[in-house]
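User: My advisor, Dr. K., asked me to get a structural model of this assembly before our group meeting. I'm new to this, so sorry if the format is off. These are the inputs:
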Amino acid sequence: MYVIPAVFFVLMFVYFPIGMNFYNSLFKMNSYSDVKTFVGLKHYVNIFQDPIFYTAIKNNVLYAVFSLIFQVGFGMILAILLEGRYVGKKIGSFFRNVLFVPSIISIPAVALLWYFIYNPQMGLLNGLLENIGLGAMKTAWLANPNTAIYSVIMMSQWQYTGYIMILLVVSIQKIPRELYESAEIDGASEFQKAIHITIPSIKSMLVVTSIITIIGAFKLFSEVYIMTGGGPYNTTQVLGTYMYRAAFKFDEMGYGSAVAVVIFIITFAISILQLRSFTDD
Amino acid sequence: MFWLLMLVIIYPLFWMVMNSLKTSTELFVNSFALPETPLFSNYVDAWNMGFANFFFNSALVTVVSVFAIVMLSAFCSYALARLEIRFKKIFLYLIIGGLLLSPQSALIALYRLFDMLNIYNTYFAMIIPYIAFGIPFAVFLMYGYFKEFPEDLEDAARIDGCSTFKIFMKIVLPISKPIVAATAIVSSISTWNEFIFALVFIEDENLITIPVGLSRFKDALTTNWTGMMAGIVIASLPMIIAFLFMSKSFIRGLTAGSVKG
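Assistant: The format is fine. Below is the predicted structure of the whole assembly, which you can bring to the meeting.
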């Protein structure tokens, strides 16, 4: 009796729609009519022949790679430095909180802010470049096909590096002090301590944060939707916007469902990895 | 190096607040300059142009969803952790397994389902999926906590003749404040900031929440930058203020999910 309501919600509105999605992906259908035509795997064949699908996958992967480098890589370096002896306790906690703040602002708000920052005329970035004498680098960041996807990616690094860093800080704080003390007796440098003690001790958290960022990269939607809408010339499409475009712009609900299945398979497979890294240790 | 990084984080936020207090002309002349006189009329404009409404909708949807998530998950995790129930393991795996499923892959089917149930374009079209997708994480957090909760107190109450429900409400829940707070905070952040469901399941201007409102603003008011900056500040402020007051609970909630147990 205590369990039923929760189970009902999850079954009915999480599992059931995802199951339905598999079924729907085999049909051609629209939002305004009830007619469904069975087309088998035709949508999947079409998806795998669409060059935009490959652009989308490529962008998701690119996003994942950058997020790993910045959020996990750079975030780890920051976490180690913050927890090291270079930074005082008070100031360290100030740094941590400031770095964390962008991650609690909603993605649409941050995306809109960066939409302004990247604006070619009045934007912060071009203004800054001009002031430091790099005016030649000025461009319409989000309208230029060569820079658009990187501009979107960098916004997320700004937003989430602090969050991943906090996760790593928490895990560093759990390392027993004695490990460091005995290393200090042996005369280990800060760098050696980081390499030989800190990083091995937080290995499982590094795996978890890597997986979180990779899953995040494949769930990408709002950032792209707000900043570029997938343009210019579809160069910033990702799986999420590609699905949205099919289902709600072109009203190809079946095709959209098939894209959703692809997203499901990718994110589910990575999540299973995460689960295994939990249960391994 | 840290100070430079601080600048990279803080300056864009500062730039936004600064420009939200300017006239459009001031912004176009020099977006780096401080406003001549700080102007709050942009906030008033944004508020009157729909933000009052967005704010109300976001608050309503968040409060209802978070309350439901916390209550349903607390009952459920307590029962799974303590009571003798058939198929306990299956229920637990079923719910926690929901964590592996991404909302995006349910989007289109949910859209059709809500259309069929006639709740498309109502508050329920947001509240219901927020609850459903919020429960797995909440149960994940709370189950671990209740599992380690000392049983002595409950035993004492049981001897005094309290029912399970009473024990839960009067003893377990009050003592579990930290985990309830952490769960509530995590659910609030994700509900308050949710975008894709709110975008797809709501059509009516009067029902949209802040994140969707912001994205519609962008298309409707491409010239009123200062007003939009004010809008972004309004959208972000509640969570930032909450964070300043409860940074410990925030960090506990947001880190617990990735730490095992």
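One thing worth pointing out at the meeting: Chain B has 13 helices and no strands.

User: Perfect, thanks a lot.
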